[in-house]
Design brief:
The protein is of the alpha/beta class and 139 residues long. The protein has a single domain, classed as HUPs (Rossmann fold). 47% of the residues lie in helices and 20% in strands. It is built from 4 helices and 5 strands. The protein has helices at residues 12-28, 48-75, 89-100, 122-130; strands at 3-7, 31-38, 81-86, 104-108, 135-138. Strand 2, helix 2 and strand 3 form a beta-alpha-beta unit. The longest helix has 28 residues, at 48-75. It binds adenosine-5'-triphosphate (ATP) and magnesium ion.
């Protein structure tokens, strides 16, 4: 196994995504990459300056999410690589996985917004549909 990609969004399920991805790396070897995508956020009505401030806050939050994830992964005995990207999460995940030659994507069935009555969140369902490598959906 070459590269395992764990997609996290700071939700409770992200913890299980990390644990399972670590298990896979421990069993099969390879590199663990942890990805968090900051959403492009600039609604109509906000000025460019407002949006820059929002973006800066979201970036800070992203760093915290990635740092906590890497600490967790390390505590489980694996050295992961953290990546923060900006854009539409599902599209960024699919593109990143292709570019990096990822062998398996780990993703949660739901995330932060968590409408539990849908089977899969919008990000995970798009990734399952468009990814060109195997996707493991953690529930
Ligand atoms: N911004 C993100 N960066 C990286 N991975 C993400 C991101 N958002 C979601 N994911 C991944 O997708 C999984 C499912 O989240 P998803 O966003 O699809 O569901 P949701 O938040 O419950 O619903 P919604 O479709 O309303 O966002 C998460 O557990 C996480 O693994
Ligand atoms: Mg979501």
């Amino acid at each position: 196994m070459g590269k395992v990609l764990a997609c996290i969004d700071g939700s409770e399920i992200s913890d299980r995504v990390l644990t399972q991805a670590v298990e896979r790396v421990k069993k099969e070897g390879g590199e663990l990459v942890v990805l968090y995508v900051v959403e492009d956020f600039c609604p109509i009505g906000l000025t460019e300056i407002d949006c820059d401030m929002v973006r800066e806050l979201l970036m800070k939050e992203a760093k915290v999410i990635i740092d906590q994830a890497l600490a967790k992964v390390r505590s489980l005995g694996v050295e992961g690589k953290g990546v923060i990207k900006e854009g539409r999460p599902a599209d960024v995940i699919v593109e990143f996985a292709k570019e990096e030659g990822v062998d398996e994507i780990f993703i949660g069935s739901h995330g932060r917004h968590g409408a539990k009555k849908v089977l899969l969140g919008s990000v995970s369902s798009r990734v399952v549909e468009y990814a060109t490598c195997p996707v493991t959906v953690i529930k």
